[in-house]
């Protein structure tokens, strides 16, 4: 493998750990994640992009203009992971309401705020935003901006653009596509191993064995159809119409229309 850096950029709650495992299986490399200070993470900060030799970069960094320029200059190979925005809302709600990741020391400890609300109001808070003394949540608008920035990078620079839905429905095919993008030839056995080790069940079992299973709640696409009400879909549509009117056509043109399925 040549020394062009591999950069895995993913939306928050888009299957980052599963895709990290797949990239590691394919390349033999470990990932680098920038230091995280709970409650003070800025996904827009270009200083969080640190390209280390011998490891690939992985984080929820928004590839704004400065980050895009750095990636182009470094001839990086970006792997970009999106997810359906309605399912994102559901996953983010459970993340905070259930204090997911407390078992790895990264729980936000804000479940009490969601406990004070009805489930429906809690989901609306995820969509529209929330302001508390120790929890300032920007709402879905920020994540629409993040998706737009990912699409901008993919249009500017050769990238592998994929989705949580695509990954979970066809792990072996996704392994083959990632390997091809990275210029690697994997044997059928290696593709099988990459697909097997990144199944939700395998990832959860491995995490539970380490006492860290909270992150793995469901692992399949389609949560929104079971958990969101029309008021939530309407709120999401309003945000898209107000802040990301061109996003549906851009997603379709980029081949990732599933990101806005149920909205557009």
Give the percentage of residues in beta strands: 5-15%
Based on CA inertia axes, which overall geometry fits?
globular
What separation lies between the terminal Cα atoms? Answer: 40 Å
Note the main sheet. 5 strands, parallel
Low-confidence stretches: none
Number of helical segments? 13
Q: How do the strands line up in the largest sheet?
A: 2-3-1-4-7
| Rounded radius of gyration (Å) | 18 Å
Q: Percent helix among the residues?
A: 40-55%
Query: What's the SSE pattern?
Result: EHEEHEHHHEEHEHHHHHHH
Q: Quick one: how many beta strands? A: 7
Structural class: alpha/beta
Mean pLDDT: 90
What descriptors fit this protein?
264 residues, alpha/beta, five-stranded parallel sheet, 13 helices, 7 strands
Compact overview of the structure:
This protein has 264 residues and is α/β, with parallel strands linked by helices. It has helices spanning 16-27, 65-73, 85-97, 111-115, 119-128, 140-156, 164-169, 171-181, 188-197, 200-209, 223-227, 230-243, 247-253, and strands at residues 6-10, 30-32, 55-59, 77-82, 130-132, 135-137, 160-163.
